[in-house]
Design goal:
This protein is of the alpha+beta class and 316 residues long. The chain has six helices and 16 strands. The strands form three sheets. It has an eight-stranded mixed beta sheet with strand order 1-14-4-11-12-13-3-2, with no helix packed on it. Strands 5-10-7-8-9-6 form a six-stranded antiparallel beta sheet, with no helix packed on it.
Length: 316
């Protein structure tokens, strides 16, 4: 979609010789436009919920909520959080899990340690421990396996014998790695403000425990209570991630004109639905107009946005 959007932008901008938009400028404007539209989805979803409560929203083909929810859910991700030390875990970031968190929906905790040990041989996508008793331990599908030496996590696909199991990922690349296995029995942690957690911990009646865990969010850190939940593989976040930064990639021809080339390793298309193509065009045109100081181009982009956004006017 990104190439079609760029072609439309260039066509409109060049109609009155407003100037050429370089690939670097287009990529910058495209990232800002995508982020604007992405954030609008959250406010639009809120408006549809209010409209439903006021009985101002329909059903079937008039159901506005479902398409918005489906779009947002394409950005919904579940990842195990990286342990910083003790009961402190890192919020999802590009460095730790490969995605930046926009909004954390829930925190899940796995507190039941079933067994631990050391792998004794290496087979692709397997955990092998000659001293283990996996079957007697009751380990089955979806149990969580953590390699404590490499900080990698996988789940159990099947237990093939008392000493061997097949994993969802290849996390044991060398023998002698220590591991822990946790039960898939999960508890959702309650979010507590930093100001209240001290008071809760001071009471035997309200203190978080394995059955009713809690967490606080402090900057880029998530602190889990009770503090016995302190190992990678015990804490999982369900969150909405930021959309990936779009990038129109190209190869330069002999004539000097850039030609679109999506085979480049850093190519990234827009992550929004195709129906948002016109919104991207109008928002990018608005940025272009401000960049080259052409008020007509800016006004055109703004006017098109106002013209194409009647859907939620009834809720405003």
């Amino acid at each position: 979609m990104i190439n079609e959007v760029r072609n439309a932008v260039l066509s409109i901008a060049n109609k009155n010789n407003y100037g050429y938009i370089s690939p670097s400028d287009f990529n910058l404007f495209a990232a800002n436009a995508q982020m604007e539209i992405y954030e609008e989805y959250y406010s639009s979803y809120n408006k549809t919920i209010n409209a439903e409560n006021q009985r101002a929203s329909g059903t079937d083909y008039a159901d506005i909520e479902s398409p918005i929810a489906e779009t947002l859910e394409t950005f919904l991700v579940t990842d195990f959080l990286s342990n910083i030390g003790g009961h402190i875990f890192s919020v999802p970031t590009l460095t730790t899990v490969g995605n930046d968190s926009y909004y954390i929906l829930k925190i899940l905790c796995y507190s039941n340690l079933v067994t631990s040990g050391t792998n004794t041989s290496v087979v692709v996508n397997q955990l092998n421990d000659s001293t283990a008793t996996f079957i007697a331990d009751g380990i089955g599908t979806d149990y969580i396996v953590v390699n404590l030496d490499t900080n990698k996590v996988a789940t159990v696909v099947s237990v093939t014998s008392a000493t061997s199991m097949i994993l969802s990922k290849d996390i044991f690349l060398a023998s002698g790695n220590d591991y822990k296995i946790f039960s898939p029995a999960v508890k959702e942690a309650d979010k507590i403000s930093v100001g209240k957690i001290t008071m809760l911990n001071a009471s035997n009646l309200t203190a978080p425990n394995d059955i009713f865990p809690s967490y606080t969010l402090e900057g880029q850190n998530i602190k889990i209570y009770p503090n016995t939940i302190d190992t990678l593989g015990q804490v999982q976040a369900v969150y909405f991630r930021f959309p990936k930064t779009p990038k129109w990639t190209y190869i330069t021809l002999v004539s000097g004109d850039p030609a679109f080339d999506q085979s480049q390793p850093d190519y990234q298309d827009f992550e929004l639905p195709n129906e948002d193509g016109y919104k991207l065009v109008t928002k990018i045109l608005e940025y272009c107009g401000m960049s080259i100081r052409e008020t007509e181009l800016t006004q055109f982009g703004m006017a098109q946005q106002q013209h194409e956004q009647p859907t939620f006017s009834m809720q405003q």
